Amino acid sequence: MPIPDSTRYARDAAEAIGARFEDLDRGEGYLFRISHGEKFLLGGGGNICAYPTNSATAFTISRDKQHTKAVIAAAGVPVIPGGLFFAHTRRIALRSPGHELADAHRFAAKIGYPVFAKPNHGSRGTFAEVVRDSDALDDYAKRLALDFESFLIEPVLSGDEHRIFVQDGRAMFHSTKSSPSLIGDGRSALSDLLSALNAAVSREGVSPLPAAVLAGRDPAEILPVGGRLALPGRRNLSAAGAVEHVSDQPPPTLARLAVTAVQALGLRIGAVDMFDLSTARDFSDPVVIEVNGNPGLRTLELAGRTDLIRAIWVSMLNACLGS
Ligand SMILES: Nc1ncnc2c1ncn2[C@@H]1O[C@H](COP(=O)(O)OP(=O)(O)O)[C@@H](O)[C@H]1O
Ligand SMILES: [Mg+2]
Q1: Residue 43 near residue 64, CB atoms below 8 Å
Q2: I need a labelling partner for 186 at 20 to 30 A (CA). Which of 39, 100, 208, 258 fits?
Q3: What is the pLDDT of residues 75-86, one digit of tens each?
Q4: Ligand 1 pocket mutation, candidates 290, 291, 292, criterion most atoms within 8 A of CB
Q5: How many Å lie between the centroid of ligand 1 and the Cα of residue 267?
Q6: CATH among 3.30.1490.20, 3.40.50.720, 3.90.1860.10, 1.20.120.1760 for 81-156
């Protein structure tokens, strides 16, 4: 079993500064301790926030996409408009009216299908989907309810997608992602290519891309060898999206917005996902998709920038373990 990325990065940075790394999870890497002299910190993979400099309050607020939008919008950062709805009624007494599935139907009809839906506490692209009509919304809520309580409905936006990683008020790197795509082999039908892609997505623990990503195409169609069909919706790496570009020189307008958003949330480390909606694609019309308080760094690893991963982790370990 591979150990979590963040655990590998933590161990490498601990070695770099002469700190002691101990696995507390029988070698599986989901829980560890790093110590230096009298000082120590605990960390891990999975649901544990990998960045001990982020406060529990800031991190848990950032896990809630609706709360995140409220905080950063109040700081003047543009966010995607939308509504919060619940797939369950079990905590209905704790909220005001207007957030049930029937309200979701009214809201989606008002903003107009297709809409974009995603779990309010989601990550890695799981259940982030284009929903085409009201039957599809019922189906979405039913599937989502097994794993999540609530979801957001937003207009479907399209633009270049950017991520800026911020640490202690500095934009450390910028990356862009492209859509997942099916690549033809001259033999397999689109539906078979999608099943194969979804097998890989499921191995990551992420919900499969819905069959609706093939809307408008014949599922039996065979793409020529090397032919590429880009799929609409999420672009997360865990959902078969691909890294297009990585740079440690982020565009200044995006960097400023990301630093403002991360600081407004009280996070010391955060990654801000944005769409640039400008027609010229010149970064002049950014809107924040979400802020991640526990961002992965696999993008940097894939781009060969392990130096930057180490710099981020060493700086954080020094902040926690330094004298
Ligand atoms: N309103 C939207 N319109 C179109 N695509 C969206 C919208 N919101 C999110 N996405 C796509 O879905 C992906 C996942 O959404 P995001 O809010 O970042 O959730 P997660 O926490 O799962 O990464 C985004 O990276 C983006 O590609
Ligand atoms: Mg995201």
Answers
A1: no
A2: 208
A3: 999 999 999 999
A4: 290
A5: 21
A6: 3.30.1490.20
